[in-house]
Design a protein that fits this description.
Blueprint lengths: L1 H8 L10 H32 L17 H30 L8 E8 L2 E6 L33 E4 L2 E5 L4 E7 L4 E5 L4 E5 L5 E5 L5 E4 L1 E2 L14 E5 L1 H20 L6
Parallel strand pairs: 1-5, 4-11
Antiparallel strand pairs: 1-2, 2-3, 5-8, 6-7, 6-10, 9-11
Helix pairs in contact: 1-2, 2-3
Length: 263
């Protein structure tokens, strides 16, 4: 029933991540409550127009209603909202933030937002990220990588474009911002997280369906805000991901080698 309501009534987009269905269920239950309140208020409004029209109440009654029904209805609404919050929303949030996968079993990506684009960083051939220091962040060193740490020399750094991840393999993202507050959002993964300057916020998802899913900035971040909706999460097989990584590693190696002389 919830899936039918989400798809046919709310027009919810495709789900492409493990754990997306409980989020949709929560959204559906909230809409059920809103529908009940909407219908209830319409009925009450109609009753009020009928009950207190000029013909039925020619003389004003300043004593007001003596019924206890409004109080009981308010209590019922509060209880319903408490159930949605304490029984569904909070446990769902707790499960998402506490059950993080092991980095060794996941695709780990660092993302640094900026006006107006996304910077992505993967560990290189050694599988280790180089040391970072926020004091080192600059236009030429977006992630603040310590140039003295050899582990960071083979890291893969990209600007905008696409994120590549493996289907059915957990993804861990460490999210931050270089300038103002941004918000990393992938609707199909049911994932939204603010990117806040000075903080590195972890989030995780497990993609379940191969395909291309748009990345958006869900926080108005300036005049070029719309430009931050140009990239995609590409969910692909392990083989395709490995080929992409090899191509990126070759580019890093070529850049490290510098210009060559053919004299």
């Amino acid at each position: 029933m919830n899936d039918w309501f989400a798809s046919n009534i709310l027009g919810m987009p495709q789900r492409a991540a493990l754990g997306a269905k409980p989020i949709d269920d929560l959204i559906v239950w909230v809409h059920y409550l809103m529908a009940v309140l909407f219908v209830g208020w319409i009925i009450y409004f109609g009753y009020t127009l009928w009950r207190f029209n000029a013909k039925r109440s020619a003389k004003a009654n300043y004593a007001g209603s003596k019924s206890s029904m409004p109080k009981y209805i308010e209590i019922a609404v509060v209880l319903a909202e408490a159930v949605l919050l304490l029984v569904i929303a909070v446990p769902l949030w707790g499960k998402n933030v506490q059950q993080f996968p092991e980095p060794k079993n996941a695709t780990v990506i660092q993302i640094m937002a900026q006006q107006f684009g996304w910077n992505y960083r993967y560990a290189g051939l050694d599988g280790q990220f180089g040391a970072q220091d926020m004091k080192l962040i600059s236009d030429k060193n977006i992630f603040g990588v310590d140039p003295k740490d050899p582990s960071g020399k083979d890291d893969i750094q990209l600007y905008n474009g696409n994120i590549h991840v493996v289907v059915n393999k957990p993804v861990i993202i460490y999210l931050s911002s270089k300038d103002v507050i941004h918000s990393f959002k992938v609707v199909a993964m049911r994932m939204t997280q603010d990117a806040i300057p000075g903080l590195r916020i972890p989030l995780t998802f497990t993609p379940t369906t191969p395909g291309r899913y748009q990345i958006e900035c869900a926080q108005l971040c300036g005049g070029g805000h719309s430009a931050m909706a140009g990239g995609f999460v590409l969910v692909e097989s392990q083989e395709d991901f490995n080929q992409w990584m090899k191509a990126q590693e070759a580019k890093v190696a070529a850049a490290a080698a510098g210009p060559q002389s053919f004299e």
